[in-house]
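Hey,
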Amino acid sequence: MNDQFASKSEQLRNLLAIARRVTICLDGWTKKGLTASFLGISACFFEQSSERSIHAFLSLIEIKHPHTGEKLAGCLDDCLKKWGISPEKVLLVVTDNGANIIKAVKLLQSQYAQSFNEVSDEEEESDESDNDENNKEGERIESEEEQLIMDLPEQVTFRRMQCMAHTLQLVVKPVFKFYEHLLTKTRQLVNKIRKSGPGVEKLIEKCGKTVLNDCPTRWNSTYTMIKRLLEIKQPVTEVSAAIGNMAIISL
């Protein structure tokens, strides 16, 4: 298994080495109960020999709290270096709209811009020291400078692109305010049942399922909460009546 993993990793490394541009995708994920958090990083690129696009998973990194922009930027930078992906190759960085992720990408933009400016300053000093050379040599330097400009990346390195799915999720959230009263009552019922050991036990005995909480950072969780409550409406009503002091929602 280890040999196969090493072989596949080397194949991917070779493909990344010849790829003209690479789009990086990254997202964070936290286990239920907040017991562990991870940062997933993948790469998308076009493989010319087979004329197909490739989406490859690069790294899954466990990150400790706090999840600062500096920490995320360091994880991404280390991952790119590990796979030999130079900053010039990064066409886009696709992320969600989290403030720490946005900061991480901006930090990498600033870091690369600073290093590129330092290289440009060194080249400028070198050119100034050669001002006394003959015209032929000057024409050669000018030609090299023109070629350098032509070889510069056509895009801003580490340019961030918002994840469309995450943006759509944010668009949907304002709609919830029109159903806030119903959602509040639903959450109250779900929370009361989940906090009752006998209630959860009886519910599972009746239908083999229990109610689900929603979470603002987990997509579709509000839909899943309501769907589950409708699926087991009758058992929930019976259990609520049995353990008492619970408001029953008319669904």
